[in-house]
Structure to design on (1187 residues):
């Protein structure tokens, strides 16, 4: 069928980024150096359908060189428990570890504590007579009889996917490898713990391996279909750490792509921010039911452990904190007299009261009453809002709070902003970083509306509203580097730099070989070497670059994070890490026309500003030229979002159409 | 100062976040597996009068009792800027000896009195006494370990070396203790700094008013939650298996009177204090009541001291629920506390049968193992608690192998445990069929088996080895737990509370109780 396709006669290769979310599928393509975007409804029953349709809409009959894909397929399989029937091979007498976990409960005051159901049912966990010890010695070898038994069980199991996890396999993978050899001929996805995560702490390694096995068949099918039908020479998949990886590798370790969508959003924000020279910022992506925040401090902050759908997964993920509050969150007064916003949401149906069907007050209703949203301009005027319904709902809330409607509206705005501020503090203050040293980068439908006040609450002085606020994820996929992280537990007390270097060699070789197999030339491969260190006796490691000063750097990092350094204590090297990356493409945004004269407002709206109602001007974003300067309070409307610029903020439009707000500047 | 609902909600979040951050520092810098892997610690904030205003969701048994430590420190000492008080004496503000509590005042410029206090409590894996782990079958406090009434560990920013040296001289594993104490101090430092920053950015008056108003808010919510229950007098009785010294069926009795949003919880009629280490002091009994009230009040009630305003607790002195010195108390904290929750819920089930769960495992199944590790050239003391089955409730089967009620510590990863101690885990699985049978079955307990690779002193402190966790509404009871020692293939049953010396190669096997079921099948 490719015969009827023509390879493009463009000067630059065709590149595409695609993001499938729960509601929308976004496509961003660079065609002849120009960015083109397309947004269409997702097809959750068959995610590939919307992807193919969206790509064809932009490409026509042409074939892209590279298509980078971020998706929620693996996440949703986990959330909705639609994954594979997995057979788990683990040590006999330890088959229930997957169920016991760390033996704790999430909510300490719950009358009926519950845990997520294990992903492998009991009858599918097979105990193997084998035991390796912490120092790599094998106390009980896999017998020939046991090997035959494994083969028989596996063949009869009706499993769609296999997981293998044995105690201490990070110290000696021999037995796991042997089991893998027995299972491989059966041709089903195979997840082996020491390959996926050669690090100690059995439950997290086991859980990561099982999650991988659980989502693998779905991802394999999905990626195979896309590879077969997409008009692209090469398919890459976004990983949770913000790097893309070839589809061939993604199929082996789909667990690394679980949070690929939100990660793409952060990469997109970073690509945009590069254009205006900001490298320390907080992303604030506020949507309808939830809000993602993350910290970018010259690089994305990477965590090694996350809990998608409640299952621990130890693979690198961008540290994204999600709050269950957004525009659709319901506001109410509780029995103690406190105003609460969320986590209950009006969702898409009935939606906020002002959408015309619901009765209960939401954040969007409060925004509308407060004059931060223009009823006539919602979604570019494609969807009408009902201000009188919002007023009725917020008025009722005011009666419950014994205050006027306007005060109730501002109360809702303040509470939701306080929730957001707490989320931001979790990713800044709790990591020992001061949010005031960062800019706030706001996107998503409701982000630009709440950004100014959130910034004020946090003491942040600079707010940036990038263009195309709804397409950050697809844009991120387009710009993502190719890369993967490799790690290995080594556990050495007081290692020299030379010794660490020696231990690093096998890891380095694997990174170089795999990246070469992805078509990355040696010269273009960037390698970063890291060491996870702790004071001998501690159990939590800090990650520092592996340089000749690595021990010194660790003392300093410990002091910064935990308030003290023990310079006379022995330092233990726990894990070594190599991050291999290759930057393939960076989109250069186009300049917009310069502003001529001062911009004219579309009109005015009655808004609550500093506790009083007053008219403030409304501007159309597309009509603001480069260099335009305005002072708050004002609103800026565009297709997918409305921005509120508070008094005391100065607004400037840069050469690429991004809006910069500065507190207190003249 | 009148605070609006919004400011109050913001402050509630802020204060809780400070306690959470203290916990992160403590967990990530601790040295003993009990702190760094199992997270056997808690952190909380207190106002200038020593009343708790916020806590992180750590361990209920700590959280409800720490206020008494803070108040004891304030009462006994004059705390100045840069001071840190330490206390573990159960008869002077502590709970049981391994739980070491630290308190630091927060001073603001230009004010003579402390503005607030930050505190944390961590379970040290050894605090001296007759057996490694300090959780042995003792009959008086002097056998249980090193007692510290409130004293200054740091004075004016300078460590009081004498106290440190005294402390280390009385524990078996000095290096671990040093690291853990340092982690506790580091957590206080971070908590104090955050409180000072908060007062500086928002104003002392506002933060002070918010701390006061948050307690009022909790009191209002708790009162509303209690008013929803049917007024009446609800009594219940339950029994500890034994005290480990031959006294069996030790009664715990409670009468809860609910009247118009107030509760009077009276333990009169409970057993006089006993010889074995299952005596609870008043702080523990208070923490069990605090926990039960917080469960009734649900998620919305901020866990601060206002919550207890509508609650009166009566625990006669000289009984197992308010022991006098020199009673042995190690198990009051970890075992009797669980059983107090059982008896409280048993009474409340009459007031709210549709909400209250059947009995959970009722034991933390405490295991301590210690000795000398010749290969690593050091003494060791290892402590763990083993989860059991949760009791079922109407509509909810009980979870299996999960810590319930007064504790929520993690397990030590097998791969960490074996790398650190001369021990090998030979079995860890769910004890199938141990949960009660009924419409909603109780959760199953666990089986945990450890093999000693060197000669070891082992202590077990466990409950519900004789008397089964009760079911409710016709549901069956959970199976009692069983403790064994195994050597050369022979299995010997160990009582619920026991100490033993194990030869290299011998194993200790703990099978924990299941939870009770809810409803007839």
């Amino acid at each position: 069928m490719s015969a009827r396709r023509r390879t493009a006669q463009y000067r630059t290769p065709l590149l595409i980024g695609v993001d499938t979310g729960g509601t929308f599928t976004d496509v961003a393509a660079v065609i002849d150096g120009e960015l083109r975007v397309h947004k269409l409804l997702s097809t959750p029953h068959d995610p590939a359908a919307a992807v193919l349709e969206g790509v064809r809409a932009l490409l026509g009959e042409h074939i892209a060189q590279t298509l980078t894909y971020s998706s929620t397929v693996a996440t949703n399989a986990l959330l909705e428990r639609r994954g594979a029937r997995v057979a788990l091979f683990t040590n006999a007498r330890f088959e229930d570890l997957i169920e016991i976990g760390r033996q704790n409960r999430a909510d300490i005051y719950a009358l009926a504590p519950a845990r997520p159901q294990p992903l492998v049912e009991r009858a599918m966990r097979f105990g193997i007579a084998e035991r390796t010890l912490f120092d790599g010695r094998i106390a009980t070898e896999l017998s020939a009889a046991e090997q035959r038994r494994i083969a028989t069980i596996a063949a009869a199991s009706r499993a769609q996917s296999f997981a293998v996890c044995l105690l201490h396999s990070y110290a000696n993978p021999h037995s796991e490898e042997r089991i893998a050899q027995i299972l491989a001929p059966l041709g089903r996805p195979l997840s082996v713990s020491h390959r996926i995560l050669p690090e100690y702490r059995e439950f997290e390694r086991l859980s990561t391996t099982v999650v991988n096995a659980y989502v693998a068949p779905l991802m394999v099918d999905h990626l195979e279909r896309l590879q077969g039908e997409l008009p692209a020479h090469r398919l890459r998949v976004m990983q949770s750490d913000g790097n893309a990886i070839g589809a061939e590798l993604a199929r082996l370790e789909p667990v690394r792509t679980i949070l690929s969508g939100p990660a793409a959003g952060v990469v997109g924000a970073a690509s945009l921010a590069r254009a205006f020279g900001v490298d320390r910022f907080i992303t604030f992506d506020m949507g309808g039911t939830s809000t993602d925040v993350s910290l970018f401090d010259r690089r994305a902050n990477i965590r090694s452990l996350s809990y998608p759908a409640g299952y621990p997964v130890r693979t690198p993920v961008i540290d994204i904190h999600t709050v269950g509050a957004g525009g659709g969150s319901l506001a109410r007064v509780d029995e103690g007299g406190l105003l609460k916003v969320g986590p209950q949401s009006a969702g898409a149906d009935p939606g906020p009261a002002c959408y015309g069907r619901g009765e209960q007050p939401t954040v969007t209703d409060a925004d509308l009453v407060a004059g931060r949203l223009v009823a006539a301009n919602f979604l570019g005027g494609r969807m009408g809002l009902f201000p009188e319904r919002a007023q009725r709902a917020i008025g009722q809330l005011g009666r419950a709070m014994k205050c006027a409607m306007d005060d109730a509206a501002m109360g809702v705005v303040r509470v939701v902003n306080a929730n957001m501020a707490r989320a931001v503090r979790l990713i800044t203050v709790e990591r020992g970083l001061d949010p005031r040293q960062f800019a706030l980068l706001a996107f998503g439908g409701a982000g630009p509306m709440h950004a100014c006040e959130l910034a004020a609450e946090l003491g942040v002085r600079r707010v940036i509203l990038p263009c195309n606020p709804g397409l950050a994820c697809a844009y991120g996929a387009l710009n993502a580097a190719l890369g993967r992280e490799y790690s290995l537990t080594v556990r050495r007390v007081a290692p020299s730099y030379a010794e660490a270097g020696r231990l690093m060699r096998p890891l380095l070789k694997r990174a170089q070989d795999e990246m070469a197999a992805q078509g990355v030339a040696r010269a273009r491969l960037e390698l970063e070497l890291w060491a996870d260190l702790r004071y001998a006796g501690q159990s939590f490691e800090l990650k520092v670059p592996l340089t000749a000063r690595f021990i010194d750097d660790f003392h300093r990092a410990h002091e910064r994070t935990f308030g003290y350094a023990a310079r006379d204590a022995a330092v233990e090297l726990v894990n070594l890490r190599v991050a291999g990356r290759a930057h393939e493409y960076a989109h250069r945004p186009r300049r917009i026309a310069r502003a001529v004269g001062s911009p004219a407002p579309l009109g005015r709206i009655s808004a609550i500003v500093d506790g009083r109602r007053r008219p403030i001007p409304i501007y159309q974003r597309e009509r603001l030229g480069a260099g335009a300067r305005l002072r708050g309070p004002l609103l800026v409307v565009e297709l997918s979002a409305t921005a509120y610029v508070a008094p005391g903020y100065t607004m400037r439009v840069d050469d690429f159409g991004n809006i910069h707000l500065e507190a207190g500047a003249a | 100062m009148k605070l609006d609902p919004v400011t109050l909600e913001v402050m509630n979040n802020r204060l809780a976040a400070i306690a959470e951050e203290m916990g992160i520092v403590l967990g990530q810098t601790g040295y003993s597996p009990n702190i760094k892997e199992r997270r056997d610690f808690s952190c909380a904030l207190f106002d200038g009068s020593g009343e708790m205003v916020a806590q992180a969701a750590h361990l209920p048994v700590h959280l409800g009792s720490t206020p008494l430590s803070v108040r004891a420190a304030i009462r006994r000492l004059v705390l100045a800027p840069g001071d840190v008080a330490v206390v573990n004496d159960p008869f002077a503000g502590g709970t049981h000896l391994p739980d070491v509590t630290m308190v630091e005042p927060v001073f603001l410029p230009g004010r003579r009195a402390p503005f607030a206090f930050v505190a944390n409590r961590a379970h040290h894996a050894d605090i001296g006494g007759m057996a490694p782990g300090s959780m042995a079958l003792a009959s008086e406090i002097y056998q249980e370990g090193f007692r510290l009434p409130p004293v200054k560990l740091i004075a004016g920013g300078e460590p009081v070396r004498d106290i440190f040296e005294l402390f280390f001289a009385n524990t078996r594993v000095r290096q671990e203790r040093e690291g853990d104490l340092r982690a506790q101090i580091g957590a206080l430092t971070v908590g104090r700094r955050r409180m000072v920053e908060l007062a500086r950015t928002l104003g002392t008056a506002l933060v002070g008013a918010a701390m006061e108003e948050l307690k009022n808010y909790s009191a209002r919510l708790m009162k509303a939650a209690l008013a929803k229950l049917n007024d009446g007098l609800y009594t219940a009785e339950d029994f500890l298996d034994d005290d480990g010294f031959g006294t069996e069926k030790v009664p715990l009795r409670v009468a809860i009177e609910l009247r118009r949003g107030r509760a009077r919880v009276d333990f009169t009629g409970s057993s006089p204090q006993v010889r074995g280490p299952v005596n609870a002091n008043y702080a523990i009994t208070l923490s069990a009541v605090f926990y039960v009230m917080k469960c009734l009040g649900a998620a919305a009630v901020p866990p601060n001291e206002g919550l207890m305003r509508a609650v009166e607790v009566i625990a006669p002195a000289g009984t197992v629920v308010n022991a006098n010195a020199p009673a042995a108390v190690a198990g009051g904290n970890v075992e009797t506390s669980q059983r107090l929750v059982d008896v409280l819920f048993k009474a409340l089930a009459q007031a709210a049968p549709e909400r209250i769960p059947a009995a959970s495992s009722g034991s933390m199944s405490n295991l301590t193992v210690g000795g000398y590790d010749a290969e690593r050239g050091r003494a060791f003391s290892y402590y763990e608690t083993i989860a059991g089955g949760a009791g079922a409730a109407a509509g909810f089967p009980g979870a299996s192998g999960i810590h319930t009620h007064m504790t929520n510590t993690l397990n030590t990863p097998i791969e960490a445990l074996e790398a650190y101690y001369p021990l090998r885990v030979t079995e860890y699985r769910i004890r199938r069929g141990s949960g009660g049978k009924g419409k909603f079955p109780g959760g199953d307990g666990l089986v945990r088996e450890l093999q000693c690779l060197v000669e070891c002193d082992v202590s077990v402190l466990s409950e519900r080895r004789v008397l089964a966790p009760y079911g409710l509404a016709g549901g069956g009871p959970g199976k009692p737990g069983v403790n064994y020692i195994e050597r050369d293939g022979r299995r010997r049953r160990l009582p619920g509370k026991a100490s033993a010396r194990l030869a290299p190669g011998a194993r200790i096997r703990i099978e924990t109780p299941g939870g009770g079921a809810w409803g007839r099948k």
